[in-house]
Amino acid sequence: MFNNPNALLDTLIIGAPAYLVIIFLLRISGKRTLSKWNAFDFVVTIAFGSILSTLLLSKDTSLLQGALAVGLLVFFQYAITWISVRSNVMQKLLKAEPSLLLYQGQLQHSILKRERVAKGEVLAAIRSSGIAAIEEVEAVVLETDGSFSVIPKFNSESRSALADVKYLPTAN
């Protein structure tokens, strides 16, 4: 059944500390490392899984090598997010812009199509926000992490929270 029973023991001996090292490094790296995913976060997370898998199944990779690999990923994640907070260019490279899916009760069909969002998804987001009528919604925004923000109608003329939203109509 098993070619080498010692391989199972090796997996247990390396797996437990490898798991603890990864948890420790992710914990000290801060909330941002495991926040809602953008494309960069997705790649980093897959790489974490790949490193753990290699540590568990490969005799050629030491725990120290795995810890170094995870440490490098955490460092790159920290460095790139640190730079992106301070650089609009880097931020635009790493994150998509939020997109306006509905504005003042009107679905933005061209944007829905471009973003591959069905009308039903927008309606579900409105309902899950506790709003029963589309006319009570000022805007629905597809955020950079893929979530929906539903903004109810408001009395103020200011729309400052929508300032970075792509394709915001200028006229009412």
TrEMBL record:
InterPro entries: DUF421 (IPR007353), UPF0702_alpha/beta_dom_sf (IPR023090), YetF_N (IPR048454)
Keyword Cell membrane included in the entry's annotation: yes
Keywords attached to this entry: Cell membrane, Membrane, Transmembrane, Transmembrane helix
Main location (coarse class): membrane
PANTHER family in UniProt: UPF0702 TRANSMEMBRANE PROTEIN YCAP
Protein name in UniProt: DUF421 domain-containing protein
Entry keyword Magnesium: no
Membrane topology: Multi-pass membrane protein
Taxonomic lineage from the root: Bacteria, Bacillati, Cyanobacteriota, Cyanophyceae, Spirulinales
Transmembrane segments: 6-26, 38-57, 63-85
Organism from which the protein derives: Lusitaniella coriacea LEGE 07157
Domain YetF-like N-terminal transmembrane: 19-83
Subcellular location: Cell membrane
Pfam name, any one: YetF_N
Domain of life assignment: Bacteria
Domain named YetF C-terminal: residues: 86-155
Family: Belongs to the UPF0702 family.
GO cellular component, one term: plasma membrane
